Amino acid sequence: xxxxTQTPKxxxxxxxxxxxxxxxxxxxDLSVYWYQQSLDQGLQFLIQYYNGEERAKGNIxxxxxxxxxxxxxxxxNLSSLELGDSAxxxxxxxxxxxxxxxYNEQFFGPGTRLTVL
Amino acid sequence: xxxxTQTQPGxxxxxxxxxxxxxxxxTSDQSYGLFWYKQPSxxxxxxxxxxxxxxxxxxxxxxxxxxxxxxxxxxxxxxSASQLGDSAMYFCAMSRKTSYxxxxxxxxxxLSVIP
Lengths: 117, 115
What we know:
The structure holds two protein chains of two kinds. Chain A is mostly beta strands. Chain A has no helices and eleven strands.
């Protein structure tokens, strides 16, 4: 158990809908990362938050947004869902944003499997 | 731009034998970190081992060791004494040490351990 929790574990929804994925980082970790893993695209970095602020953006669609709350949990919002958004969405956390640690080991949650029908 | 290449989509190894999973990377950064993650069929991502670009010695963690050849830009994972529970997808990844703003993953290698 990595200490990172993600809910829900599975989510089935229809095209055009909106969903929210939730992540709670390990105790003491300030950084939260979101990744999307699909069969054709592999594991793709979406976005990072550090202590409530957006730190880095990757291949995140405009239909997707995220935020990190004062208690450090994070939510990933996916809207106008398409069939191609079906994937496993991971949240990961680490202690630092970078630069201050010797390395930035990320601990992954169990993932949320999203199926868009 | 950073890039990770894993040229072995699938590998088989006999139980108790050693296996090497290949990883090459491309970066213009001088300071970076290299990681290996394991993803069993259950889906979770498990951190295995880390190597810093300035670390002089190859990293080891139990049965896992990282064969780091900086000049060749390779960071191969060696698993000794393979066990059936080692059957999984293995991902090589890297991040810049200056900011560690994201981790770039390779496409992965599927390892199957045969009894």
